[in-house]
Amino acid sequence: MTQAASVTAAVLIIGDEILSGRTKDQNISYIADYLSKIGIDLREARVVPDVTAEIVAAVNALRPRYDYLFTTGGIGPTHDDITADAIAAALGVEISEDPRVIYLLLERIKPEDLNEARRRMARIPHGAELVKNRISAAPGFWIGNVIVMAGVPAIMRAMLDEVGPKLATGTPVIVETIAAGRLPEGAYAAPLGEIAAAYPELSIGSYPAFRDGGFHNELVVRGKDKTKLASAAAAIKSMLTELAKARA
Amino acid sequence: MTQAASVTAAVLIIGDEILSGRTKDQNISYIADYLSKIGIDLREARVVPDVTAEIVAAVNALRPRYDYLFTTGGIGPTHDDITADAIAAALGVEISEDPRVIYLLLERIKPEDLNEARRRMARIPHGAELVKNRISAAPGFWIGNVIVMAGVPAIMRAMLDEVGPKLATGTPVIVETIAAGRLPEGAYAAPLGEIAAAYPELSIGSYPAFRDGGFHNELVVRGKDKTKLASAAAAIKSMLTELAKARA
Question: Please, is A111 exposed, middle or buried when counting C-beta atoms within 10 Å of its C-beta (0-12, 13-18, 19+)?
Answer without folding.
Answer: exposed
